[in-house]
Sequence to fold (586 residues):
Amino acid sequence: MNVVKVLAKEIKEYKTASVLTPVFMILEVVVEMMIPLLMARIVDDGVNGGSMSVIVQVGTLMLLLALAGLFAGIGGGMFGAKASAGFAKNLRKSMFRNIQNFSFSNIDKYSASGLVTRLTTDVTNIQNAYQMLLRMFVRAPISIIVAMTMAFLINARIATVYLGAVVFLAVCLFFIMGKTTKFFREVFKKYDALNESVEENVRSIRVVKAYVREEHENSRFRKAALNVYELFVKAEKNMIVVAPLMSATVYTCILLISWLGAHMIVQNSLTTGELMSLLAYCMNILMSLMMLAIVFVMVSMSTASAERIAEVLTEQSSLTNPEHPLMEVPDGSISFENVDFSYKEGSGEPVLKNICLSIRSGETIGVIGGTGSAKTSLVNLIPRLYDVNRGRVLVGGHDVKEYDLDTLRSNVAVVLQKNVLFSGTIYDNLRWGNPNATEEECRKAAEMACAAEFVESFPDGYNTVISQGGTNVSGGQKQRLCIARALLKNPKILILDDSTSAVDTATDAKIRKAMTEFRPDMTKIIIAQRISSVENADRVIVMDNGKVSGFDTPEMLMQTNQIYKDVYEVQTAGGGDFDQPGQSLS
Fold:
């Protein structure tokens, strides 16, 4: 992967600013290099020669050049900021857009905190490094070359001192940067762990406080922060010699030039003005080297960031549309034909093994099974959130791989157990199901999901603002809003993944009845832990360790499937549902 080539594509509309920045920096260098020569003329021809007209003329020219240098510096800074900030904006936008196209298997490769670090810290590093490259990396080498050339033109013997200093510092910086880069590569991995600690803590703050785990979380964060600190200290220990090394070299050069220059002035082989110019060029060269050192530090830091960003930008979704995709789903029928599936292809035991199922359009199908029996994995294959490893999944009589992904997923609505609401009003959240839904359609969907009653009890009704993550509504209210959102899609297939676990059985029954009346031809798949949620289904799938243990009507399963029978007897004879009193075992 050519990292530079991948990142360079994101410069896009900021190419002009990226070109103008070094142009202005070169102009600034040219102006700066002319001023020492004019200073030498003022000293030699004006001051020593006693000519006021020379001082006025050359001084005026120096003032004009200084203004030109100021203009060039401002231009370089302005265009550099525009180019680097725009580049960073494009990187973030492209990364975020590509992340939206990731399949679940792609997302499984990256942690949420890792992606946040790449979108924030890593991009900021690239932004700073890019501005440095456009400005300092262009300015410093040209300044060194021009100053060195001018110094050799004035006096080759003294200029040799510069050359020796440049070579010495360049070799030292090369070795220092080589040792430092490896620490910066590691430090951003530690940033991921740091961000993960913060994100998890903030997201789960209620659990942390409920279990009085604040000290544990503090300790965990301190450890993550200490890891980042230690790596930065190691990097800085390598870099700490740069400043004193540069200073020692600068002062050594000044002393040598002054000593040699004084002798040459006495011998009339060098003028006072030329010595001043040489000292000015000396400072210019060594300051430019200092700038290069800073650039190398930034580049060292940003190299790891660039690789991490390019990794996200070049990540290809494992799910792609066929060349000529189907743009319509005929009905809600579903078939699994000898399906095997594992989350990481070729690694370990399949999660689903030899699944063979046939579901007619409009059926209500229950799915039960113990924890880890792969119920959710089964239904994730229907909207093609993952691809099967063997066999095929058919929807509406066609392999899901033949459909346009957006078309397929628009016809399959999934309501998860862990529901997510977004910042905005209740109307805004409901319209995720249908952006063009009218207020009347939103209200009707809320009524079917048994959400209308509590929504209308809010002072602002459907205009009530949902806080981030839906923290200002209860778990049951959140589930019902998510069901209403799914119904607004008017899908051919509706999957409820234990999504009524936080509502009582009476409300659960009302929701299922309303969905059946709403669209009799809509296929409904209900994953549940409660037997009451599936006992009225047309048929029930019993999952056991990634295999189908039984698939029949609830009545037949009571006679033919021991797992279903055991669950039924435990829930009805033992404790009942959580909101209903159980029957005595005596």
In short: The radius of gyration is 35 Å.
